[in-house]
Amino acid sequence: MSSATFSSNFLQTGCLRKDGFNNPKDKKRNVGKVFVKCSVNTKTQKAEKEVRLGVLGASGYTGSEIVRLLANHPHFGITLMTADRKAGQSIASVFPHLVSQNLPKMVAVKDADFSDVDAVFCCLPHGTTQEIIKGLPKSLKIVDLSADFRLRDISEYEEWYGQAHRAPELQKEAVYGLTEISREEVKNARLVANPGCYPTSVQLPLVPLIKANLVQPKNIIIDSKSGVSGAGRGAKEANLYTEIAEGIYSYGVTRHRHVPEIEQGLSDAANSKVTVSFTPHLMPMSRGMQSTIYVELAPGVEIKDLRQQLKLSYEDEDFVVLLDEGIVPRTHNTRGSNYCFINVFPDRIPGRAIIISVIDNLVKGASGQALQNLNVMMGFPESTGLLYQPLFP
Ligand SMILES: NC(=O)C1=CN([C@@H]2O[C@H](COP(=O)(O)OP(=O)(O)OC[C@H]3O[C@@H](n4cnc5c(N)ncnc54)[C@H](OP(=O)(O)O)[C@@H]3O)[C@@H](O)[C@H]2O)C=CC1
Ligand SMILES: CC(=O)N[C@@H](CCC(=O)OP(=O)(O)O)C(=O)O
C-alpha cells in the first residue's frame, strides 16, 4: 500500500497505542475518529506494520535513537537501514542495546533498494544529505534531521555552512517541522526539515511570546548547553573523555550555525527581522540540553502574562510543558523523552525575564520530533509511539 493510501485511511481511523492507552490530549485533535486497536510484535515488525520505513544513517546517534523509538510504534516498521563505514553490519553489532529488534542489515546508500519503502528518516551529516535526498524516489515522504533544508534563504545556508547548496529546487518544497508551530504545513509536506536541537529549545518558548508581542524582539540573549551526543558519534579530538569531563566549554562563540535558524523562526514570529546573541556550551553529559534565555518585556507586560500565554499555547500539547511557578526545569526532567519543559522567572532587573527550556537533544531535539512529524505526515495521532516517560535519575 502506498503512503498516500495510509495517510487517508488513518486520517479517518486513527489508532490506539499498542497497549490500548490513548493519550487524553490526543482526543481533542481526533474528535469524531473511530479508533482501532493494533497488535505489535517487535520480532516481526516488518511483516505486521503498515508503513515501511528506511532509516538512512542508522549507525549514528540520531539514527539509532529512531530505531529505539520505533520499537514501540504500532504502524511503522523498518525495512531498510543504511550506514557508511559500518555498511554490511547488523545494528546489534554496532548498538547491542537494540539487539532485541529483528532488523535488516545496514547497507551503503548506493546499494539501498527503496522499492519496499514508503518514508525515510534521513540521519546523515549536512552537506551529504542534499545529494542523497535529490536521488531518492519522489514517492517517498522524507523527514531530514540534518540542517540541509532548514534555511529558506539559500545564500544564508551557503554563508553559514560554507558550501554551495546542491538541491535548491528541493529547498522550495521543504517545510520546517517545528511540529507545535507548523503542524498544518507538516501535514501536507513531502519533505520536512527537522529543526536543530538548539533552535527547538529556543523557539518553543519564544515563538508564542514574540507572536503575542509580550517580549521585545531585540536584545535577546541565549545561553545554551548541550550533551556531547549532540556532536554525533564520529570520533573527534574535542569530544574525547579527557577534553569533556570535569569542565564545560563554550564553542561557536559569536558565530554558531544555529543562529540563522533561530533568527529565521523568531523573525517569522515577529514579522520583522530579529537578531539574537547565542552561545552554546558543551557539558560533561551524554545527552540533554538547556537554553537559558534573557528577554526584555514589552511595555506594561508582567511575568504572569508570559506564563498565561505559554499555558494557553501549550495546554493542549502532548510534549511541551509549562512547569508550575517557581519550578526550575532540569535536563534530568526530559532525558530519554520527547518532552520540552519550560518555565519563566522574573529577573532581579525590572522589565526583564529569564526563560529556561530543557529537552533531550536526541529526542525532542532530533529523532523524537522527527517521529512526531512523520506521524503528522502520515495522519496518525501525533504522539503515537512517543509517550515515553523521562528517565530519572
Ligand atoms: N546528535 C544530535 O543531537 C543531533 C543531530 N542532528 C543532525 O542529524 C544528523 C545525524 O546526526 P548524528 O546521528 O548525531 O550523526 P552521527 O555522526 O552519529 O551519524 C552519522 C550517520 O551518517 C552516516 N554517514 C556519515 N557519512 C556518510 C556519507 N558520506 N554517506 C552516507 N552515510 C554517511 C554514518 O555512517 P557510519 O556510522 O557507518 O560512518 C552514520 O550512520 C546530522 O546532520 C546532525 O547534524 C540534528 C539534531 C540533533
Ligand atoms: C554538541 C554539538 O556539537 N552540537 C551540534 C549541534 C547539534 C546538531 O547536530 O545540530 P544540527 O542538527 O543542526 O546538525 C553543534 O553545535 O553543531
TrEMBL record:
List the GO biological process terms: L-arginine biosynthetic process
Reactions catalysed according to its record: N-acetyl-L-glutamate 5-semialdehyde + phosphate + NADP(+) = N-acetyl-L-glutamyl 5-phosphate + NADPH + H(+)
Domain Semialdehyde dehydrogenase NAD-binding residue range list: 52-189
Give the EC number(s) listed in the UniProt record.
Answer: 1.2.1.38
Please name the pathway.
Amino-acid biosynthesis; L-arginine biosynthesis; N(2)-acetyl-L-ornithine from L-glutamate: step 3/4
Record keywords: Amino-acid biosynthesis, Arginine biosynthesis, NADP, Oxidoreductase
Active-site residues from the entry: 197
UniProt GO molecular function = N-acetyl-gamma-glutamyl-phosphate reductase activity; NAD binding; NADP+ binding
HAMAP family xrefs: ArgC_type1
User: Record's family?
Assistant: Belongs to the NAGSA dehydrogenase family. Type 1 subfamily.
What is the name of this protein?
A: Probable N-acetyl-gamma-glutamyl-phosphate reductase, chloroplastic
Identify the species of origin: Prunus yedoensis var. nudiflora
